[in-house]
Amino acid sequence: MVIKSNPDKDSEGVKKTHNPFDALDNIRSNRKIFFILLVAGIGAFADYYNTAGILTPSSLSYLKYFSVTTSVYGQFVFFLNIGILIGAITWGPLVDLLGRARMFFVDLVVMLVFATLSIFATNFHEFELFRILTGFAIGGDYGAALPFLSEFAPKAIRGRILALFWVLAQSGLVVGTLVSYYFLSISSISPEIWKIIFVTGLIPIIIGAGLRFTVPESARWLLFKGKTDKAVEAVRKVTGSSPQETVNNITSSFNIRKNIPLLLLLIVPTFIGIYATAMPAGLSTYFFPYITQSLGLSKLTSVLLQVPVVWVSEIVFTLILALITDKIGRLNSLIIGGTVLIISTLLIIPLTHNVDALLPLIFISNGSSVFSQTIIINWGAELYPTNMRGIASGINIMAFRLSLASTGFIEPVLLSLGGVPALYAFLGLLSLIGVMTVMILVGKRGSVEGKSLEEITDRFR
């Protein structure tokens, strides 16, 4: 949807379009904006805490408890991410239909139910089913949270706010891994300890569901639905000012069917770009402890090393993205991040048996993978009209999770064919293809920095 007001003329006599959300777009950073960031990001924190932060290290416990092998774990990782993938594309249209704030409360409640049931699973099939359904619930959170956050963020720092959303998610990885390490170490990796670890995963879900009662619905979505009074009130709650006069004079227009070719020119290359650039980080997320064990490190050492080498690298690189993306632009940021990703990933190939050199390179490869994928994923909440942001964000998360799911099958195959060098050669070439596809096909359309969402949408009419 493109929102337009009655046009005036500028000093040169050219008609110009007013943005009814100037109050939001031009607001200085305040506590309410960062509270909205916290409320939106706590779902992602809960996701990363539950689906990787505790899931990966505690596999040392629950695989013993259920008497299953590492190969079964690889299949579980695949189906878990498929569950999140299906959730993302299922909930996305509902987010655009029923609202951002409503749906990202409901998905946390559903997540809480299935995460709780998984703790009481009596066999691995039950455990796997309940965790996949937990993933299905959290898959819908991104399609709601990212558009919600984008539609409230000031245009000058929207890239920073969206990047910080992912820092909150990655914090869940660090906290979850440290919590898991603590309980695994004090129990000597007891087969039962995973249940206590999983109980801790319920805490951020409960807190998040409670906090989401306190924020207004997206003003842009409310206006798209014709709920002008509620849209005005949502803007007033965040900015302290009311855009009543301007909002009352708007009209809306965006013909999705007419713009399908152009939309596909955005959706397809961003899907490819996310799938390709996310895989190096996906490998480190689910298989780092097993890769380092193959190099002679102990199980607990491998778990603990995942914090500085994998999780901290994601936070560091995403914080760098938050600092630069609004200043140098999304495309320049992607060129830098993509180049570092490709080079660092390929440099791993000759150094796979040198742990001292390998770990720093994995740090850089993993961090730049997250840096690059974050830019492209966030475009789902920036490039598209109001009635497509939930769907587009869901499709982007679908690409992200499909990439993570693929590691469960690609990693064992490539390792069996050519070992770790073959694995990272594939990841380096795949990253190159992904970055080049986005740069060529999306191009300047991805330069959204400093523009309101209405200006961005208007450019594609």
Task: Determine the N-to-C terminus distance.
Answer: 10 Å
- What's the number of extended β-strand segments? 4
Low-pLDDT windows of residues: 1-17, 249-253
CATH topology: Growth Hormone, Chain: A
Strand order of the largest sheet: 1-4
Content-based structural category = mainly alpha
Query: Any idea of the CATH class?
Result: Mainly Alpha
Q: Strand content of the residues, in percent?
A: under 5%
The residue-averaged pLDDT reads: 86
InterPro entries: MFS_dom, MFS_sugar_transport-like, MFS_Sugar_Transporters, MFS_trans_sf, Sugar_transporter_CS
Pfam families: Sugar_tr
Keywords: Membrane, Transmembrane, Transmembrane helix
GO molecular function: carbohydrate:proton symporter activity
Question: How would you sum up this structure, described in words?
Answer:
- This protein has 461 residues and is mainly α.
- It has one domain (16-459): Up-down Bundle (Growth Hormone, Chain: A).
- Helix content is 75%, strand content 2%.
- It is built from 18 helices and 4 strands.
- It has helices spanning 22-25, 31-53, 59-65, 70-98, 100-119, 124-152, 158-186, 193-200, 202-211, 219-224, 228-239, 244-247, 260-294, 299-328, 330-347, 355-378, 389-441, 453-459, and strands at 2-4, 8-9, 15-16, 251-253.
- Strand 2 (8-9) and strand 3 form a beta hairpin.
- The radius of gyration is 22 Å and the shape is globular.
